[in-house]
Amino acid sequence: MRQILKPYPLTQEAFAPFGDVIETAGRDHYLINNGSTQRFHRLADVDTGPDDGKAIISIFRAQALELPLRIRMLERHPLGSQAFVPLKGKPFLVVVAPAGDTPSPHAIRAFIANGEQGINYHRGVWHHPVLALSDIDDFLIVDRSGIANNCDEYYFADTVELWLEASH
């Protein structure tokens, strides 16, 4: 199946059904540290699900995939949220589908994060693994660790092609 996805700029409003946009633009803050630091408080909530879950912090080092990209699978984390915060300030792609038993190719949406935005996938939201647009890019990850498996993968019988315009 050939379905062309056009990536849209990542905004809090457009991404709300899938999770949170982690950014300071347009967000309230208050001063701390004797007025020398602005705190942008609670930009996203870490959901660790069942009692055995703990919030962990990791770094993923990603390599860019060849475009156009054929989307063959999506994954979800049924027991907790998963946040990606770029560490090198480079734009990256976000491909998502609503939470549910299986993702529908027709419900897939694509966004371009501007390099100053992170994202926090809500529990159960289908998403493509990290999609760097640069040769090498690093992301700070905040997600759940625990005894239970927190990653489901869904492989499409047909693939979806993601076409990215040259001016990202």
TrEMBL record:
This is Ureidoglycolate lyase. Its cofactor is Ni(2+). Keywords: Hydrolase, Lyase, Purine metabolism. It catalyses: (S)-ureidoglycolate = urea + glyoxylate. Pathway: Nitrogen metabolism; (S)-allantoin degradation. Homodimer. Pfam families: Ureidogly_lyase. Belongs to the ureidoglycolate lyase family. GO terms for molecular function: ureidoglycolate hydrolase activity; ureidoglycolate lyase activity. InterPro entries: RmlC_Cupin_sf (IPR011051), UAH_cupin (IPR047233), Ureidogly_lyase (IPR007247), Ureidogly_lyase_bac (IPR023525), Ureidoglycolate_lyase_dom_sf (IPR024060). SUPFAM superfamilies: RmlC-like cupins. Catalyzes the catabolism of the allantoin degradation intermediate (S)-ureidoglycolate, generating urea and glyoxylate. Involved in the utilization of allantoin as nitrogen source. GO terms for biological process: allantoin catabolic process; purine nucleobase catabolic process. HAMAP family: Ureidogly_lyase (MF_00616). The keyword Hydrolase applies. The keyword Phosphoprotein does not apply. Its EC number is 4.3.2.3. The gene is allA. It comes from Pseudomonas luteola.
